[in-house]
UniProtKB/TrEMBL annotation:
Co-factor(s): Zn(2+)
Protein name (Swiss-Prot/TrEMBL): Carbonic anhydrase
GO molecular function: carbonate dehydratase activity; zinc ion binding
Record's catalysed reaction(s): hydrogencarbonate + H(+) = CO2 + H2O
Binding site for Zn(2+): C124, D126, H180, C183
Entry's Gene Ontology cellular component terms: cytoplasm
Amino acid sequence: MVMLLRAPHVRTAGRSWTALNALRPRGDVATSSKFVTPRYSTTPSAFALRLGSQERYCSSTPVLQRRRMADPETTKEVRKYLQQSHDRIFENNKHWAEEMRKKKPEFFTDLSAGQAPDYLWIGCSDSRIPAEAITGLEPGEMFIHRNIANLVNNIDLNVMSVVNYAVRHLKVKHIVVCGHYGCGGVKAAMTPKDMGLLNPWLRNIRDVYRLHQDELDTLEGEAKYDRLVELNVHEQCRNVIKTAAVQQCWAENEFPVVHGWVFGFNDGLLKDLKFDHEGQLAEIQKIYDLTKDF
Ligand SMILES: [Zn+2]
């Protein structure tokens, strides 16, 4: 057995590797190689690159055997890297807290007082899309939920709780569903094969494909991929509108407004899909009207 590492803290194994690899964005998929070059160009040292020489790890390998495989020098380096990559966060945090205090002495006093964000952001978990950084918002201005491929599934208690809390208690004015081109989750859903544990999650996107099959089947390659990303955002916006919290709050206050955006890695810009909140709400309420009591 050989070890497979993307970075020391991201071990994958056996069948799950196949599924996870499908989630990798276009352009860096390596399905059959012995190892994948770590994608962390900002790693604190060149150490991560050397991990590429390690052996492939398999979940079926007994723990003791796995331990025996690791050579002491590599083990030492792995531990050193783990310590460094942990410690840098605390160094960064200390630096950030000092900077914020310098810029605005009352900053942390204000944060402690509570939150009143205008925005709820529902985005992809992809590490390349820092919501506050790309929107220029400060801590306290955006309530955030992220999952693979920015899905709003009505039996996902997590996202439903977030929407409910953001709308009914925080009284957010805007709900943004933000997808991104090059989304690994969408790509995986376009791949017709068994993805194991990911199947139920990806089913949501495959259903979006089915709903828009006529349009998507006229497209090829990247154009099809990009369009499914947009259509997925559109359908998730519709799912947000289907919730009782959003419908009832809108009926009372004329907010929140739901928006569908897509982020592009190529230029760092957000594209507004011009989701028609009111038009979609009217259409949805023909069947999903939840504004009336029993
Ligand atoms: Zn994504």
